[in-house]
Write a structure and sequence with these properties.
This protein is an alpha+beta fold. 40% of the residues lie in helices and 20% in strands. The strands form three sheets. It has a six-stranded antiparallel β-sheet. Strands 9-8-7-12-11-10 form a six-stranded antiparallel β-sheet, with helices on both faces. Strands 13-14 form a two-stranded antiparallel sheet.
């Protein structure tokens, strides 16, 4: 029997993160787990058997037999003491053990007296809870050697069920996330450079890829702040919110250029607790958004639950952040095209209205690319006759013989200016 009190590891971050990674809490009953508790109860001749998972502030029962509540607070938990045990913890009489004699479940209904719990230990050594059997009468001799071995074997079966369940979940998650990324990229492309529409498409894809997320934002830098440029529906009142680059999680993600996975925002001194409460944010993850290798903003997903996200979620969020960058690039290209179109419009307005001047554009090979109305009026050739040709046609035969067109082109290429004070020809052969 083990009567030594060891430190309880309920709130260790690594243990809680391991528990969160199984995504098992508050899920419906499953036959595999139910069968195990019924078998444990029969093998140990106990009226109560539980698969108990110990969270930060409660114990929750994935399967139970002979015990109506689906969870209790930690003040009523005996399973929490298993977390620090190397093997099966047995307490022959709960009323005589310092750890449990004041427990309300011992002092009152249902008057628990005997407890035996085998730790549910992950392959990397984290204890998630226990498979336990409980009796309403003390057992001074505890379980038999065979019963202890049976309880340990069934605890291993519980862990195998949890690992199998997580493997299936990871496979399903990968498929769901891949589909979400494809849909997001299509949405960004369909936005056609509309930046806000691109942001909304990315947020919709992120929420689809990470079901644990309850809300999300795209935050873009403006001056010394990050501005909520796009938000999911639950954060609609906070559109346009500004958070400082220094003294905020988003600012840290932006300045350091690294993803952040925060299981409990209230334990991070960079978080404004009042703002976190307003946003209903208890855990979050953030990834930098880059354009051309430069960080320009942050993509964030959040939850009101502790430890809602896993490393796999952070990785897919990083992929989706690339979609934000694509939207930024397309919006920039669209703006550049608009500016270029406006410039071209202004150029054409001047080019076409210059009736008193022959304006002729040539490429670097000396071939005519454009020919204005003034050139037609003065020289006589129409644009369709001259575009694609060299300028030799309106030089005199002697200048063509002396290579003057080529020399003027070379001067323009080298110095930016080609001096052209000489006789020229019109289409009808007239010199001017």
């Amino acid at each position: 029997m083990n009567q030594v009190t060891r430190p309880v590891r309920v709130e260790e971050d690594a243990r809680l993160a391991a528990l969160a990674a199984f995504d098992i809490l508050d899920t419906p009953p499953e036959r595999g787990f139910d069968d195990i508790v019924h078998l444990a109860r029969r093998l140990c001749a106990a009226p109560v058997a539980l698969v108990s998972l110990v969270d930060r502030d409660r114990q929750w029962f994935k399967a139970r037999a002979g015990f109506p509540p689906c969870e209790t607070d930690l003040d009523r938990s005996v399973c929490k003491f298993v977390l620090s045990e190397p093997g099966v913890l047995q307490i022959p009489d709960l009323t005589r053990d310092a750890r449990t004699r004041a427990n309300p479940l011992v002092t009152g209904e249902p008057n628990l007296r005997f407890y035996a719990g085998a730790p549910l230990r992950t392959p990397d050594g984290q204890v998630l809870g226990s498979l336990c059997v409980i009796d309403h009468v003390p057992r001074p001799g505890g379980l038999s050697t065979e019963q202890v071995a049976d309880l340990e074997a069934l605890a291993r079966q519980v862990m195998d069920q949890l690992l199998l369940r997580r493997s299936r979940s990871d496979r399903d998650r990968a498929g769901r996330q891949g589909e979400a990324v494809a849909v997001t990229l299509a949405g960004v492309a369909a936005a056609g450079g509309d930046l806000d529409e691109s942001f909304r498409a990315v947020l919709a894809g992120a929420m689809r890829a990470v079901p644990a997320a309850e809300a999300g934002t795209v935050e873009i830098r403006e001056g010394d702040t990050l501005v909520y440029r796009a938000v999911t529906e639950s954060l609609a009142p906070h559109l346009g919110l500004r958070v400082p680059l220094r003294g905020s999680l988003a600012g840290a993600c932006y300045r350091e250029g690294v993803p952040l996975l925060v299981p409990d925002v209230l334990s991070d001194d960079r978080v404004d607790p009042e703002l976190a409460e307003r946003l209903r944010q208890r855990s979050c993850m953030l990834v930098p958004v880059r354009r051309g290798g430069v960080v320009v903003g942050v993509l964030k997903l959040q939850s009101s639950r502790l430890g809602a996200f896993a490393e796999e979620d952070l990785q897919v969020l990083g992929v989706l952040a690339g979609s934000v960058a694509s939207g930024l690039a397309e919006a920039g290209e669209r703006a550049a095209n608009r500016a270029a179109a406006l410039t071209e419009y202004r150029r054409r307005a001047v080019f076409d209205s210059a009736q008193d001047y022959a304006i002729i554009l040539l490429d670097l090979d000396g071939r005519i690319t454009d020919w204005n109305a003034g050139a037609t009026r003065i020289l006589g050739w129409r644009p369709e006759e001259m575009c694609g040709e060299t300028a030799d046609a309106f030089f005199t035969p002697e200048d063509r013989r002396d290579g003057i067109p080529a020399k003027e082109m070379q001067s323009a290429l080298e110095t930016g200016t080609g001096v052209d004070e000489r006789w020229h020809l019109r289409r009808d052969g007239e010199r001017f």
